Amino acid sequence: MKSLRKDQCVLEYNPAYPPALKVASGETFQLETPSILTYIADFPHKVTVPVTGPVFVEGAHPGAALKTDVVKIDLNAGEGVIVAIPGKGAFGDRILKPEYKVVRYDKKYAYFSNNIKLPLRPMVGKIGVAPLDRGINCNTPGPHGGNMDITDITDGASVYFPVFIEGALFAAGDVHAVMADGESEVSAVETESILTLRCEVVDNLKLTHPLVVNKNDIMTVGEGRNLEEAYHIALDDMAVMLRKDLNLSFVDATMLVSQAADIKVNQIVNPLVGVRVTFPRALLPSNSMFSRKK
After folding, report:
1. Which of 63, 78, 151, 278 is deepest in the core (most CB within 10 A)?
2. Which pLDDT belongs to residue 293?
3. Does residue 292 carry a pLDDT above 90?
4. DSSP 95-127
């Protein structure tokens, strides 16, 4: 299986970067990912976690979508780190100095303290493709994906991205052992991993922003300078999808969203905040690409 090491990484999603790996559409490959834990000796001077890649996917072209299956997340460090940084996150104005806590984990739990153990919840924080005409720091989410910090991007999930350039130039990293929606304090249990992934070109799907799909739900994703900007993008994309798949009027689509689609906060700590709107796949018709009935 083709793979990249954790030192084969970049700090931007950038269309000018040469690919570090080439894979065929539908081919399974592995990415070893670094984390804040990798660079903890340089904390707090080095806190931007790079992404492993870029990966050129043969056949990916502008106007298509790139489906990325998260086949497996292998946490391989046995420990992670939680950091606190003055001025960062919802509590940043009360954090007086940079601090970090090393957290041990096993196959089931992360041990926050002697008497607090958290169920392990591995997820991929940064995942995306290169934008069209500029580099975007991998700390920032956007239509290309990037630092979305969506807790649902875990084993068995699929993420669909709009493709902006030939080959897509996919990259991923910033894996977490545990994180709650919002990542409000600014840090998850940041750890190293080996990601097993599969990228496939989808020609009959037009996207403006990523879609996340797991066993039960489909999720539209938005980002913005504030939550209102972010949720408008995610809600509008969900309404557009439901109008098409269920043959609804715009008003009926908005009514259905209000009854069946949950708004969830991805994170409030990155340069742009993120929101996802989650809709049950069981309510989609059998002819939908994302129907659970298939």
Report:
1. 151
2. 64
3. no
4. --S-EEEEEEE-SSEEESSSS-EEE---EEEEE
